[in-house]
Structure formats: C-alpha cells, structure tokens
Design a protein that fits this description.
- The longest helix is centred in the last third of the chain and has 30 residues.
- The chain is built from six helices and no strands.
- 78% of the residues lie in helices and 0% in strands.
- The protein is mainly alpha-helical and 147 residues long.
- The radius of gyration is 17 Å and the shape is globular.
Length: 147
C-alpha cells in the first residue's frame, strides 16, 4: 500500500477521533445540536478513512455514504446497523444545520454520540485488520528475492 494512502487514512481516522471527542465535550456542556453534528462528522470522517485506502473520494456527502453502503454494508464487510447509524446521523445533522426550530434532546444527542463511538471503533478495527493484512502480503520483488 502506498504511503500516501496510509497517511491519508491515518489522518482521516485521527480527524474522526477528534470530532468524536468534540461531540462528547459538547454533549457534556449541553450543546446537543452541535454534539449531534460532531457525532455525524466523526462517522463521516471514519468512512473517508476507508475511502483513502480505496483511492476513492466524492464531493457530496450522500455519494460518500452511498459508496460506503454499497461496498461495505451490502457486501457484509461491516454490519448492516452501521448503514442506519450513518443515514440517521446524516438526516439529523442536516436538520440541525438547516431546519428552523429543530430541537435535539439530551437523550437524542447521547444516542448519536454512543452510536458514533461504536461506529468509529468498528471502522478503526476494520482499518487495523486491513492494513495489517496488506502489510503481510509481500510484493512481487520480495517474492523473487530482489532487494
């Protein structure tokens, strides 16, 4: 795997963790709408970490989510519940950002944050396994005993 792909994947995964941490801080301070937004972006950034390894990216959130669902949920690489996690978080985040008078309860924000924790951890586990697997596959020059 080229170093640039791995570096980008690691960067995006770190971004996901930072956004998750922000979601937790905002939740604790009663900023529920903003916490929901950060929870969504934690999941979204985790998905983009996978896309870095796939050498794929899209300019629209919906396209990134659709690719993730097609390539990782429908193929059962990741559990189906994660499709619902990201789809629901996307809808709630859009409502928080664009709908007037949209309210988010503490329970709603806690649920989204909890799902983001689970989602991000699962993506990280997947990425660790995937990168370990690709690191253990020798390239053709190594197989032939070339330097």
């Amino acid at each position: 795997m080229p170093d640039i792909q791995k570096t980008l994947m690691e960067y995006r995964l770190q971004t996901a963790k930072e956004k998750l941490h922000s979601a937790e801080i905002l939740l604790a301070s009663g900023q529920y709408k903003d916490s929901v937004g950060r929870s969504y972006y934690a999941m979204f950034s985790a998905i983009r970490a996978i896309l870095a390894l796939d050498k794929v990216d899209f300019s629209k959130h919906a396209a990134i989510i659709a690719y993730f669902q097609k390539e990782y949920i429908k193929t059962e690489i990741l559990p189906k519940e994660y499709s619902k996690f990201i789809s629901t978080a996307f809808q709630i985040r859009n409502n928080c950002d664009y709908a007037d008078f949209f309210l988010v309860s503490k329970a709603d924000a806690e649920e989204q944050c909890s799902k983001a924790v689970k989602f991000t951890a699962a993506i990280e586990d997947y990425l660790i396994k995937r990168t370990q697997k690709s690191n253990s596959i020798p390239n053709s020059a190594e197989e032939e005993g070339k330097p």
